[in-house]
UniProtKB/TrEMBL annotation:
Keyword Disulfide bond: yes
Full protein name: Xyloglucan endotransglucosylase/hydrolase
Purpose: Catalyzes xyloglucan endohydrolysis (XEH) and/or endotransglycosylation (XET). Cleaves and religates xyloglucan polymers, an essential constituent of the primary cell wall, and thereby participates in cell wall construction of growing tissues.
Subcellular location: Secreted, Cell wall; Secreted, Extracellular space, Apoplast
Record note on modification: Contains at least one intrachain disulfide bond essential for its enzymatic activity.
């Protein structure tokens, strides 16, 4: 239990502070590329990205986070989105970066998007799980959330857990816990691999493609330096994510998603891992 107490050493010292943000896009994000293809609209309440044959577009958070609960509503590219990727993720920088990924791989009209998830630690990823969704993610806004604490990472869609990645350091597997990360998002062309391994190309007659974002919130730890977040125990209910885990009901919902909507799991890919599955699969299969 000592490690779980250490988890809560996050919020009230000089090195970092916890903050709940439900703010305007122009206050919390910078548009980083796209030459005008990314726009902040409606007095900061809406952000749109677009992609045409010349360029895509993207943005990043002004703040870096070290653990937190991040929520964002997205409405994805509609119609024939094959070849496009809408990426929404947390990442640090450098060759030994940490990263937590949502990537939405477009498809032909009428065929489902593929929701691709991955976790990187110390530059090593290869922890992919992919899903189809139980709704059309281009028809309306839906909430995509990441809870990241020192024990686990949980991916949610509209409050339903779709993936849990547990800390497996006891098995010699590194875990993202020491590097603060920004939020990034981009809309870009990846028709060399995204749709059926690159077999389906982007139909540029449908361009420009567009994705929309709203209702960002972050209940998260923001380091004031590059050091790890350290603080004293907090019992604030608003910071319950610091020790969040899935209860029995949530575990059943997770199993439902994985049984009915998971289309790829690295921990069952015996062809790829013919010499044996990664050690973290013991906890994360």
């Amino acid at each position: 239990m000592a490690s779980s107490k250490l988890v809560l050493v996050i919020c009230f010292m000089i090195s970092a502070f916890c903050i709940a943000i439900g703010a305007k896009f122009d206050q919390e994000f910078d548009i980083t590329w796209g030459d005008g293809r990314a726009k902040i609209l409606n007095n900061g309440d809406l952000l749109t990205l677009s992609l045409d044959k010349i360029s895509g577009s993207g943005f990043q958070s002004k703040n870096e986070y070290l653990f937190g609960k991040i929520d964002m509503q997205l409405k994805l590219v509609s119609g024939n989105s094959a070849g496009t990727v809408t990426a929404y993720y947390l990442s640090s920088q450098g060759p030994t970066h940490d990263e937590i990924d949502f990537e939405f791989l477009g498809n032909l009209s009428g065929d489902p998007y593929t929701l691709h998830t991955n976790v990187f630690s110390q530059g090593k990823g290869n922890r992919e799980q992919q899903y189809h969704l139980w709704f059309d993610p281009a028809a309306d806004f839906h909430t995509y959330s990441i809870t990241w604490n020192p024990q686990r990472i949980i991916f949610y869609v509209d409050g339903t857990p779709i993936r849990e990645y547990k800390n497996s350091e006891s098995m010699g597997v590194s875990y993202p816990k020491n590097q603060s990360m920004r939020i990034y998002s981009s809309l870009w062309n990846a028709d060399d691999w995204a749709t059926r391994g690159g077999l389906v190309k982007t139909d540029w007659s449908q361009a420009p493609f567009s994705a929309s974002y709203r209702n960002f919130s972050a209940n998260a730890c923001i380091p004031s330096s590059s050091s790890s977040c350290n603080s004293n125990t907090t019992t604030s209910t608003s910071n319950s994510w610091l020790n969040e885990e899935l209860d029995n009901t949530s575990q059943e919902r997770l199993k439902w998603v994985q049984k009915n909507y998971m289309v790829y799991n690295y921990c069952t890919d015996s062809k790829r891992f013919s010499q044996g599955f990664p050690a973290d699969c013991v906890q994360n299969s």
